[in-house]
Model the fold of this input.
Amino acid sequence: MKISIRKEAEQEMMDAREWYEVRLPGLGDVLGLSVEQALDAIIEMPAAHPYIAKRFRHVLLRKFPFSLVYIQQDDEIIILSCFHHRRRPGSWRQRQ
Done:
C-alpha cells in the first residue's frame, strides 16, 4: 500500500515536533515515533480506524492530542492532516 502525505499535513507534523522539542528536549522525537506508529497502523489495516466524516478516517496518536486524518483511494492512503484536538479540530475538512 502506497502512502502519501500532503504538504500541509507534513508541515503540521514538523511544527508539532518542533514545539514539543522546544518544551522538552527529546519530546519531539517521541512525537515523531508516535506518528510513525500511527502510520504503520494505517498501512497495516486502513479500514480498521473510525470515520470522522463521510470518507475520512482518523487514527489517534499515542500520548499526544493529535490525530492523523486520511482517505483511502484504491491502493493509496493519503494523509490529509495531523491536527491538534483543541487548536483546529475542523481545519482538515477543506483538504480533499
Notes: The CA atoms of residues 17 and 31 lie 6 Å apart.
